[in-house]
Amino acid sequence: MRFGETPIDEATGAILAHSWRANGVNFSKGRVLSGEDVAKLKSAGASSVVAARLDPDDMHEDEASATVAKALAGEGIEITAPFTGRCNHFAREAGLAVVDHERIDALNELDESVTVATLPPFARVEPRQMVATVKIIPYAAPRTAVARAVEVAQSANQPLIAVAPFKAMRAGLVQTRLPGTRDKVLDKAVGTTTMRLTSLGSALVGERRVAHDAKAIAGALAELKGEGCDIFLIAGASAIVDRHDVVPAGIEEAGGEVIHFGMPVDPGNLLLTAELDGKPVLGLPGCAKSPKYNGFDMVLERLAAGLPVGRAEIVRMGAGGLLAEIASRPQPRDDSDGEEAGPQAAPRVAALVLAAGRSTRMGGPNKMLADAEGQPLVVHAVKAALASQAVEVVVVLGNMADEVRTVIEKAIPAKSRLRFVVNPAFAEGLSTSVGAGIGALGKDIDAAIVQLGDMPGVGAPLLDRLMAAFSPVEGRSICVPTVAGKRGNPVLWARRFFPEMFKLSGDSGAKHLIGEHADLVCEVEMTGEAAVTDIDTPEALAAWRARSKP
């Protein structure tokens, strides 16, 4: 192709490179100039134009884009008419975009004049949604480049671009129970699963709730198989942690075969795939209870589209497998469920050190000032919070507020992360201090650890372990430390609970909220006695000192 300033007498058949608007002539760029057009330009005073002239081995941009687009397209694709060197592919119906990434790259390496842009492989598409676009960059492409692009497109037994439509599936769901499993948790999982399946044109046609036992799971699968289910979903009351765990054992007890355990997708790492009489079985990760997009969705969509999901496919899901953020930061934020979409980021967790109490059982003016291994009791708590990954430490003062603040500031150099707030209603109970601390937190805080100032054994590693466990998208919105099965303190709370905590009254704190939101509680096992040891009496303090001596 020849491009550049073209004498007007040689412009017939050339492609106008730039719009020409003057003296009554209004021609847009890309116009193929006819003899009549050239005459008008001459009458308007043009002696030359910037134009492209095709050589015999060139193909016009529209013909080239249409040729390449046709060669690329497979099933489920509609192709638009070419215009200005562009030809688009649209999905005929809802499904997944099937894109051969490697061959798209190879095609785009052939010649700078020929380009193809697509959705990511396995992107979910709706009817009439654009899947790909072919664009010829200049006004023409070399015929050899177009021919090579067609050759790449036809070099395998499958097209470069297609849409695999969703096909209706009849799904059966097995949910297991442990002592204390609440029906509302299981009901919620049914609702979330139903929504997922419905969006794919499928249906949940059967559900069984059984004990967390391999034989019980096998029996439930046999019943659902008899009801004509063609995909089986198993949500264990306890997450699968090994390919020989209860859920995979139940699948094998039913005559099934485990294919693969785990996937390089987060959230969704603990998904298990299996087969039962040639039909897919999925052991669900904990995040399947959340409506947020996760690894379960990636697998379920492919199965609904009739695409293979074996070990080879799963292990290739890692690139692009980091799906969700942990405890949102984007603005504006919605605190209704504590699960925001957006880039993954470390959660912003604050530590609330409660140091406002009256110390009535201690027998002294304020136990926070009592000596504990050479420093006031409260200083242990504040130092631990500051040594942790908490982004902010708020100390709630009340009884002898000035004295407590003074000993903290004397023991700890000025820290930008350390703030103080006074609770004037401290005599009304612990809940008022919780409310005062919550009210002092900024809008960018995702969660708070309510830390008691009278637990000197609680160190930064314990606090950091609670923060590491926190993941609302995985259903871990309240993180409670346990020691040998006994729950203790401090407790981490997602932001979604702040309004309820702010309204607390009395001296019981927020314990009742744990019972009301049992499905969002994560117990974090700790070593040692720190999480269950507080200092309420002189005897307790003496015992702690004795244990702490080398």
Description:
With 550 residues, this protein is an alpha+beta fold. The protein folds into four domains: 2-53, Alpha-Beta Complex (Molybdopterin biosynthesis moea protein, domain 2); 58-165, Pyrimidine nucleoside phosphorylase-like, C-terminal domain (Aldehyde Oxidoreductase, domain 3), CATH 3.90.1170.30; 170-315, Molybdenum Cofactor Biosythetic Enzyme, Chain A, CATH 3.40.980; 349-546, Alpha-Beta Complex (Spore Coat Polysaccharide Biosynthesis Protein SpsA, Chain A), CATH 3.90.550. It is 29% helix and 26% strand. Strands 21, 24, 25, 26, 27, 28, 29 and 30 form an eight-stranded mixed beta sheet that branches. A six-stranded mixed beta sheet has the order 16-15-17-20-19-18, sandwiched between helices. It has a four-stranded antiparallel beta sheet with strand order 7-8-12-10.
